[in-house]
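In this supplementary section we document a worked example of the pipeline. Step one takes a protein sequence of length 208 as its only input; no multiple sequence alignment statistics are reported here. Step two produces a three-dimensional model, which step three serialises into structure tokens for compact storage. The input and output of this example are shown verbatim.
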Amino acid sequence: MYGVGVEPKFAIGQRALLVQAPSGNVLWDCVALLDEGIADTIRALGGLSAIAISHPHYYTTMVEWARAFDVPVLLHAADREWVMRPDSRITFWEGETRAVGEGLTLVRCGGHFEGGTVLHWAAGAEKRGALLTGDIIQLLPDAGWVSFMRSYPNLIPLDAARVRAIAGAVRPYAFDRMYGAWWDMSVERDAARVLERSVARYLSAIGA
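The serialised model returned by step three reads:
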């Protein structure tokens, strides 16, 4: 897996992640800048078979990326209203899960967007499983915990029902590691346990 980002930081400074899989590389989330240097590097790594994006805050230049690599962009249909630039390469998927390649599964969690999605990578973490979360599950500087928000700019917490739904959506999947939306945000081990205890702490803190 490779990180794709912009230095100096642009806007909120998120990274994208390029997951290499036997069925084809998948770009998870998106960054605003696409130049020839980035494109050539990704082509040298095998190009892309698809782009999948966790939620509308990372839609950014997804159309330019899709056109450059001639691949579909997979978005959950619940967030269709947030697409400001319709394009034939955008594919809206429905339901709770969608396979996006061998051992790669999109899982709808909801959260601060109804279609909020994470990517489960079965072969990640040396085949112990990894979860790519964007900020649907927010990783923290203390890698022993995660958290959740309804609005990050306004610091409004997410309600109990949606937090429980996130935990329930990913519970069927084995994962030992989580990767967030920023370079220094990851949980390197025991990620499933970290998520469960974080949910319990969060619900207790909001009186649920």
